[in-house]
Amino acid sequence: MSVRNHSFVTEFVIVGFPGLQPEFYGLASAVLLIVYSCTLIGNFAVLILFATPNILQKPMYIIILNLVVSDVLFSTTTLPKIIARYWFQAGAISFIGCFLQMYLVHYFGSVTSFLLLIMALDRYVAICFPLRYPMIIKNSTIHILNATAWIVAKACPLMLVIRAYPLPYCDSNTISQCFCDHISITKLACTDRAPYSFPAFVTAMVVLLGPLVFIIFSYCSIIVAVLQIASPQGRLKTLSTCSGQLIIIALYYLPRCFIYLSSNIGIRFSTDLHIVIIMSYSLLPPMINPLIYCFKTKDMKQTLMKKFKKSTAP
Hints:
Strand order of the largest sheet: 2-1-3
Protein name: Olfactory receptor
Family: Belongs to the G-protein coupled receptor 1 family.
Helix content: over 70%
Membrane topology: Multi-pass membrane protein
Strand content: under 5%
Mean pLDDT: 84
Radius of gyration: 22 Å
Largest sheet: 3 strands, mixed
Number of strands: 3
Order of helices and strands: HEHHEHHHHEHHHHH
Subcellular location: Cell membrane
Low-confidence stretches: 1-6
InterPro entries: GPCR_Rhodpsn (IPR000276), GPCR_Rhodpsn_7TM (IPR017452), Olfact_rcpt (IPR000725), Olfactory_GPCR1 (IPR050939)
């Protein structure tokens, strides 16, 4: 009998946090709604700043603009469904809809990883090769790199979906997660996961660790370059141009690396704690990043203050 004939599941049910008692569903949906609202408000505020003519047109801000779009799309892909699950008990999602969400979750995660690599490249050239920076890093160059990130990021998630979609799903259709992702879906397949989980792990490591290796190299090079600056004030000023980017990169990579490594060296967490960690590194950065952009980036901070003063002026 073919694999397709074994696939009796027509829809999946997203459980969210399996240990959460029903009396806390309203609170959970309210918290998630607040996170989603703050994410939209913060990121759309940044988009409004970018709409100002002839302001924030430097390469770094073009990268930030792409990160904002990726963060909004990721949050919109994941949060509305889990909010509906707790608010309206609408946790069901169609078979195709679940795989579409899985693709988008991994796609936007991959895009963000590549954009952070481009951000690190910008800082690396700016600090290690300051005289050549205007020739190497132009707005046109950054546009090409950003477009490449959005295109190249399609490959790995598409491969995951193509390999997971035909698997036989004939048992449970309950997903113990707040959204559909590769691990939570393939766990439900009525077949040995090993031939599928290892290539997926390798893919994740390529998308995650490939950019991370260059990011570590670039910031190590930046530290070496900063230490060669004679003036302590000069060192501090140079490092301050990287502080916002370092926070954003740490929020994205550190929890992900911890989860991937812990799951492969035998460290086990309760299901609820595991989901909390995943939700934290998936949803908090899109909410926090606009604050980092506005308060850790001088030009954006000044532009925001000017707009605020103009709007409050009598």
